[in-house]
Amino acid sequence: MINYFCYDTEIGRIKISEKDEKIIGLVFSDYKKENEREKETELIKKAYTQLEEYLSGKRTEFDIEIEMIGTEFQKKVWKELLNIPYGETRSYKDIAIAIGNGKACRAVGNANNKNPIAIIVPCHRVVGSNGSMTGYAGGLDIKEKLLKIEKCSV
Question: What pLDDT score was predicted for residue 153?
Answer without folding.
Answer: 66
